[in-house]
Each structure stands twice: as C-alpha cells, then as structure tokens.
Amino acid sequence: MTLLAPVPASSAALPSRQKRHLPSVESRPDRLSSMSTAQRQGSPVEDESQRTPTTATYANPDGSWTTKAYAGVVRAPEDDSAWVAVDPSVVKKHGRYGPAAVPFDVHYSDGGDKKLGSLDTGSRASVEVGWPSKLPGAHGEGRQADVRRRSGHRR
Fold it and tell me: What is the dihedral of CA 25, 26, 29, 34, to 10 degrees?
C-alpha cells in the first residue's frame, strides 16, 4: 500500500523564479502591487509610494511590512516621480552653484553680492548666510565651490 501526501502549492508545485530565469522585482509603484509581487515571487518588494529621503518600506512575502530608516538622507527627488542617490558634488544649475542632488534647495554664491549661500527645506524653514562685503566671483568643481580674492588666493 502506498500513501500519498498532498504537496503544498507553494514552491514545490511551481518552478522558482531562478529556474524560469525571471528577474526578481525590487520595487513597485504602490502598496497593492508591492504586496502581490512580494507574495508571488517570495522576496521583499519596495513600495515606491512610501519612499522618503530617509526611509524605504518593503512588502514581505508573509503579508507583513518592513520599513528601513537610515541615519541620514540617502536619496533626493529628481522630479515628481523619480528618486536619485544623494550627490553632494557642486554643479552650476540655472546660473547658481549647489549640490547635484539633495532633498532641499541649497545654493552657493557665484559672487557679486553679499549672500554666501542659502538653504530652503520647502517646509517653511530656510536660512541664508551673508558676508559683510561683496563677494568675488566663484567657480565650482567636484566637491567644492571656490571663492577667490582678486589676487587669486583662496579665501
């Protein structure tokens, strides 16, 4: 006599994603698609609608949620729908110097006025740093913006 036990319809009945050579999905645009994808593929999937500069929220295959909170800012909004890694490199955009990608508006002086720099968080918090005299011209490269005296020496 042979006894047959039912086989769960989980991984034993269905080929794994690796066997079918399908790439694992890392993120989805909303809670519903994140959870359904996580349960279908058997690995966590980030819910992009919950992203912030300092957190990432994942749907888990067991139906639970996990939020990773970072000690500092790790990403910045590039536009209304895309996020990019923080990049503090100094670039000139719209005629002003500032970091390439941070989650708030930061601008450094390009000279010609008394405003050394400004920061605006977008939530009614801002700060400006001034200088007692008119600043000379500046240039930015890589990780710094340089302000030079008229004699050419660094300030």
Answer: 70
Indicate if 65 and 83 belong to the same structural domain. no
Q: What is the pLDDT of residue 98?
A: 87
Neighbouring C-beta atoms of residue 105, cutoff 10 Å: 14
Task: Report the C-alpha gap between 90 and 143 in whole angstroms.
Answer: 5
Is residue 20 situated within a structural domain?
no
Number of domains forming the structure of the chain: 2
What is the DSSP code string of 55-96? EEEEE-TTS-EEEEE-SS--EEESSSS-EEE-EEEEEEETTE
Q: What is the mean pLDDT of residues 1-10?
A: 46
pTM value surpassing 0.85: no
7 domain-assigned: no
